[in-house]
Protein 1
Amino acid sequence: MTARRILFIVIDGLSDRPCPELGGRTPLEAAHHPVLNRLAAEGICGIMDTIAAGVRPGSDTAHLALLGYDPHTYYTGRGPLECAGSGIRMEPGMIGFRCNYATLSPAGLVTDRRAGRIADTKSLSRAVQEGVDLSGFGVEFVFRSGAGHRAALALKGEGLGHCVSSNDPKKDHAAPLAIVPVRDRVQDRKTAEVCNEFVRQSQRILVEHPVNRERLARGENPANIVLMRGAGEMGNFEPFSKKYGMEGSVIAAARLIAGIGSAVGLEEIPVDGITGSQESNLDGKIAAAVRELARKEFVLVNIKGADESGHDGLVAQKKAFIERADAALAPLTSLRDCLIVVCADHSTPCAIRDHSADPVPVLIHGDGVRVDDVTEFGERTCARGGLCRITGAGLLPIALDLVNRAHKYGA
Ligand code: ZN
Ligand code: ZN
């Protein structure tokens, strides 16, 4: 029998380097994870360079590669994907930015880059959307609040480039920077002008806004300036359903991953209580994935907590999160008619607190796979598996072949 559906479980930043605290084991090697071991024992394993050997992937470029969209073609910056993830309908050619609300002192210095960790900025964003006018440039825009102090901005208009700098001084008690073109092209000069005008007009609105007056009266930092970065041009993504002949869904707390899903036409499935952090509702994610597989041929689930622990350098926390994720995967062992793929998008070693190019472990479980001798899911054990060392661009094609959806090349 051949499976007909594909489930991708991406455990973000899962893999690591040997940790002295764990006697030279990685958090994945040291963790108790019977479910992953069972899937590995019943499946085929390998290791994977998500983009290419020696390339340190971002989560965004890694997920694009895993979905078969070459990041060298499709990735110009994080902004447009964040915009898509925050619910803005991004069209090819629109310029997207990640933004955050910050506090500007009367002396003109950014004194708090998170605006007192403001919880809700919706009314501020609405005022900016209604009050800022960029029509003099022939530009329309959509400005949306994200979680906490975050927001997203998308520009639409003729002759806009995406090669512009950020106004974020990247440190507190510094003046915001002017946004400048980073290439000497007329379209980038225009975008820089539009951005500076957006910042100017929005600031005037924010300073006067009742929410900020009230925050000041309570002794809280006002959210009175928008910092923007990550400029990129929205690519022209061939829809996933057209490319692969499968309908798909994405389940992810991280807006960036949801945005990638939405950019390629995967339906986002909301799940209560998912946070992209340690306490996220992982059982809810897996239950939603199993439900989705009854109506879709492809489901991508991103589980984020291990990456967060890696960035924070917390070895014990990362190990504990992996054990929690493993327990949440238990319902998958009784899933029928489905090819299960488990991998990381990149390594996030606790020792370096950032992503590294170390290859990630991968397993494929389901009918038809050539079961190998690997019985433990780990960075080193998987390196001895039957998949050997593959690239991220190869993973979905391998899965498609196993569900008999690959096109024959030649006669
Ligand atoms: Zn990641
Ligand atoms: Zn990360």
Protein 2
Amino acid sequence: MKIGIIGTGYIGLTEGLCFASLGQHVICYDIIKEKIDQLNKGIPTLYEENIDVLLKENLEKKTITFTDDLKVVLSGSEIVFLCVNTPENPETGECDLSQIMTSTESISKMSETLGNKFFILAVRSTVPVGTNKKVKEHMLKINPKLNFLICSNPEFSRQGSAIYDFMNPDRVIVGVDNEKSKERMGLVYKPLTDKGFPIFFTNIETAEMIKYASNTFLNIKIGFINEICDICEMTGANVEDIGKAMGMDKRISPLFLKPGPGIGGSCFPKDSIALAKMGNKLGLDLQIINASVNSNIARKNSLASRVINYSKNKLEGKTISLLGLTFKANTDDTRYSPALNLVEELAKKNIKVNAYDPHGTDKFKYMVDPKALDFIRFFDNAYDAIKDTELLVIITEWDEYKQLDYKKIYDMVQQKVIVDFRNILNEQEMEKIGFKYYYIGKKI
Ligand code: UDX
């Protein structure tokens, strides 16, 4: 099938490449010309496992092309996947639909110039319940002869394993309001359903809500284990064992029960806030959802005081080292990263940070509060960042941090303290070297 992708970001690019690898002919569109030029040269615009290989392969096979000309996408596509960003509106906390509105207006107008050829618009971006219906009405108002069907097809890909997740979905969700959309969407996902991966058709509103309900539920699950972890730190109960044992109960499942520095990324934090706002608008007081939002913010804001406590209050005017800037490993994304809260809170307390992250530095510089930038220095390797600092904090679970020479690091940090917000090191080994090793869940 011929498919178009509007918005070549994390989802648009990875999934465009996946569809191409599954045998579809894909045209990816983005308004940023430099991005399109770079992709046409075979250079990935983001960090994601295997993306370079898939990009090269599909460009060579000519199963994917990149364009900044909307006409090219619309004239050549039976199904157009809308993959633009729907970030948090910083003023209201609601889902910002401006990119959805601008892109669908352009599609509507452009389609008229192409003789209103039929297409299906599959909305892949996360949008509040009722949005697809409103978008449809809006597009038809702009161009009453627009010949299209709209369906909701939310994505569930995790950054860092987006390609694997797309190719091995727990389920494909498609919200439709007619048989033709169902048949065409069934066809585009046939290479996956033929392998046994399930496709679940619902109405459009249900599909929109499945995305918010799933992400917010996982946000609650992680927030819950983080609170259990705080109890463990005061009582000596072992949070890892609790997570494992809870997970043995099939009703709970062991996944997403790992405590950490708080939840980041482009989805969970903003989707939970947007769902709470959706409830507000409907006149509902969604107490569990609101609590999960606040619990996560509180956890991330508590990181600096935890570090200060572990150093016995001896950090003012000093420099600590920080391993990790991205919100989790295997991505270059720093959106809502706990490292942002940590650095910003430390800066307010006149504590400087030497940081190293293998892929996140550029995006972190762009995201962090400019006031904190004077307090942070970025390094190209871990040892240069750690040298002559007071103590070491690990906040992202990159594999390479596990391989460092901690005997060498022992001589580099003044207070001989490691604070590990991801539990990636071995307690006995660190204590044998002589470190005071604080990890998530450890009784102080
Ligand atoms: C998420 C969803 O998983 C995905 O389905 C959706 O489409 C996009 O949002 P992503 O944001 O890439 O994916 O990251 P994910 O791996 O889900 O982790 C989210 C956050 O939770 C990270 O900050 C991670 O460190 C944290 N986390 C995850 C934990 O603290 N503990 C866990 O057990 C799992």
Protein 3
Amino acid sequence: MNLVLLGPPGAGKGTLAGLLVEQHDLLHISTGDLLREEMKNGSELGLEAKSYVEKGELVPDLLVTQLLAKKVKTSSPDKGYMLDGFPRTKAQAESLDEILNEIQRPLDLAVYMDATMEVIISRITGRRVAPKSGKVYHIVNRPPKQEGICDVSGEELIQRPDDNEETVRRRMDVYLKNTLPIVEYYESKGILVKVDGDKDSEKLLPELNDIFNEQAKLN
Ligand code: AP5
């Protein structure tokens, strides 16, 4: 099973992906995580991406598509793909079809997690991340056992530089203009499923499990 998770910033794509991947034997590929890794390593691509990411703008299609294609083509062939944050433009969606057709792993499902602005702002401004373990917390919804410290690695939690209210509003504008139209792209292909990202993940997880199990039966 190969699928994409679509949705505005803070809809819970990364959180739900983390809960779903193991149960369904999927490989979680987040282009946001791939870009942050490149930025941390100071690679040429990372340096180019940094200014876009920190302003809440989209990284140019060519850069991010090359990064994604490399990851998909060099990853485990026995697992399905769960793509998070890619595609984000119509051009990326078309490139993705080509990449997946080339490796004969076409998309089965596009899961669209919608969320309201109020929920988005509170989730993003309250998010804290552990840079080394990659674990994601929320100061209210998912607090660590000890304030400011990762439960797994003991490292200090940080706030992503693009997680302030001003940048989130910009990310939201960019999302509405560039990414929302690809919901229709997948709807017209008959593979779109919409879920309510405002719901707490404990409620959303069983819904998504049912959707994935139904799809797995068809494959
Ligand atoms: P990216 O990292 O992909 O950011 P995003 O899409 O804006 O998504 P987020 O990571 O902010 O949100 P999420 O939906 O994963 O929420 P999460 O689960 O963490 O991209 C960052 C940047 O990279 C972009 O702005 C762009 O510049 C660039 N980029 C990336 N991909 C690109 C592409 N394809 N093309 C061009 N540029 C690209 O949840 C958020 C918080 O809420 C957490 O604290 C969590 O604990 C909490 N929470 C989540 N869900 C729930 C829930 N259901 N109930 C309670 N709390 C919840």
